Amino acid sequence: MSIHILLRKADQACTSAQTLLNAGDVDGACNRAYYVMFDAARACLMARGFDLGKTHKGVLSAFSEHLIKSGFVARDLGRLLKRAEAFRYVADYESGSIAADDARCLVDQAEVFVQAMHDACDDLSKPA
Prior knowledge:
The protein has 128 residues and is an all-alpha fold. The protein has a single domain, classed as Nucleotidyltransferases  domain 2 (Four Helix Bundle (Hemerythrin (Met), subunit A)), CATH 1.20.120.330. It is built from five helices and no strands. The two termini are 26 Å apart.
């Protein structure tokens, strides 16, 4: 899968997250918000030359190791990704549900995250 396809998938998931949130499906919105970040993180890793497959653990670990610790991506974005992972786990696998305000915040943060990954990928493609 290419960087551009992953970013397009992230953008589509962002739209889906907002649609689900507006429909009152907070768990579905949290799931989609996580995948916004997951796909955008994969795209940025690929843009930096890392191809890690599709495993969640591999992508999250590599994102931290190669993009956060190197200073290429702000630490706050790493925290957003970890928070989204935790919310998705609750939304998908726990008997409880995410509060609507928390889901709304996560969807907003997913939009910030995907834009940052777009910007990071664009910066890599510009001539020095």
